[in-house]
Write a structure and sequence with these properties.
Layout (H helix, E strand, L loop, with lengths): L11 E12 L2 E12 L3 E5 L6 H9 L6 E6 L2 E2 L5 H7 L1 E4 L11 H6 L9 H14 L1 H5 L10 H13 L5 E5 L7 H16 L3 E5 L3 H7 L2 E6 L2 E7 H6 L2 H7 L2
């Protein structure tokens, strides 16, 4: 496939077209385009510093692009603040996780419930559902977030995003610094999200995990999408991954 946005199977949920972004005078994104379908897991791969995290931040509204368009459910969202995008159904789990370290696990989760239009019954049902998906958080529910292990904090960050009932979650390096056992659990969480018809845009240095979890991959280099392919195509020609990832 060509390095363009590509075609996602099924209905298009998120479309990014020609994003350019700067940090000061540094030109970070050079016309990034991509498409994600409903319930689809898509990987965004590339070496460090090529603009992967900036792409996620631009989609979430934390970085304002100088040029380009972002459409969510066919509606333009450029100019909307991050909290408005979250209400539309865009969840974001940053690389730093950013849980509330002095709040308990349950209190962290409840921050995702305090929004207009959610009944007490719905809040209770959502909390029970999250605890079903993340049994370790049940055991830690009265524990301060800052005392959790790295893997548990990552689970809490993802669970908190899920409390918003998003249609897509932007996952930035979810396995960074985790033990192999916890990496496997992150993979299971991605499967849970897909089963719930939640799309995932996954930024990850763990290439095997990404190839296992995603259906399509975008490869970034110097702030540009250099290659876009299905996982099956990349498995058939591993030299492409080697070229852009050095693995």
């Amino acid at each position: 496939m060509n390095p363009g946005s590509g075609a996602a199977p099924g209905a298009v949920l998120l479309e990014v077209d020609g994003l350019h972004s700067f940090y000061g005078k540094s030109h970070i994104l050079h016309g990034v385009s991509l498409v994600i379908g409903r319930g689809e897991v898509v990987g965004l791969l590339g070496r460090n510093g090529v603009g992967k995290s900036t792409t996620l931040k631009a989609i979430m509204g934390l970085v304002q692009p100088s040029e380009g368009q972002i459409a969510f459910e066919a509606q333009p969202i450029i100019g909307l603040p991050a909290h408005r995008r979250a209400r539309l159904g865009i969840g974001y789990v940053p690389e730093e996780r950013r849980i509330f370290r002095f709040l308990t696990v349950t209190e962290n989760l409840r921050t995702g419930l305090d929004r207009h239009g959610v009944s007490k019954q719905r809040k209770k049902a959502l909390l029970e559902k999250i605890y079903e998906f993340f049994p370790v958080l049940v055991e830690r529910r009265n524990q301060a977030g800052g005392t959790l292990s790295g893997g548990e904090q990552q689970m809490l960050a993802i669970a908190r995003a899920m409390m918003l009932e998003p249609k897509i979650i932007l996952l930035d390096e979810p396995t960074e610094g985790l033990m192999p056992r916890m990496v496997g659990q992150i993979r299971e969480i991605i499967s849970v999200l897909q089963a719930e018809n939640v799309a995932v845009l996954l930024v990850e240095q763990n290439v095997p995990l990404t190839l296992e979890a995603a259906s399509r991959i975008y490869l970034l280099e110097k702030g540009m999408v250099r290659h876009h392919a299905t996982v099956a195509e990349l498995r058939a020609d591993h030299s492409i991954i080697q070229q852009y990832m050095g693995v």
